[in-house]
Amino acid sequence: MTENQAENTTVEQKQAPAEPKTVIGPGNASKAKFGYWWGTGRRKTSVARVRIRPGTGKLIVNKKEVDVYFTRDQDRKAVSAALKLFHAEKLFDVFVNVRGGGNTGQAGAALLGVARALRSYDENYGVPLRDNGLLTRDPRMVERKKPGQAGARRRFQFSKR
Fold this sequence. Notes:
This protein has helices at 3-15, 66-69, 73-79, 81-85, 103-121, 126-131, and strands spanning 37-43, 46-54, 59-61, 64-65, 92-99. With 161 residues, the chain is of the alpha+beta class.
């Protein structure tokens, strides 16, 4: 390859226009499964399966409104935190099926599921979600009970006599 040919290829590579991505818009519409973008979230023993689609802002958890399902304000805020980051509370319909664990664990699982679903909707959302810690799975789990003990760390009461 001559020097002129090498210069031409580098100029062509530099001038290739990049595809602009919209802030709110399907980045990979072909990956939508039945019109939904999916995300799975886990926290402690809770597992949340989340589906999102462009819509009016419905937030349904186990076929109930989020305000009915989660009674604590911090749990309701956790579920919609990823949407608030992009000011998209009214732009997506979110459907969450969650099982296992307690209320706070379920809210944390739903948070991770919504964040992953948004990332699958548009890859540009990944960096802001990761920077705000919304794509990080919390690895903490309950420590198992050991044999010969009352619990994970608690021993049976010692009797001297």
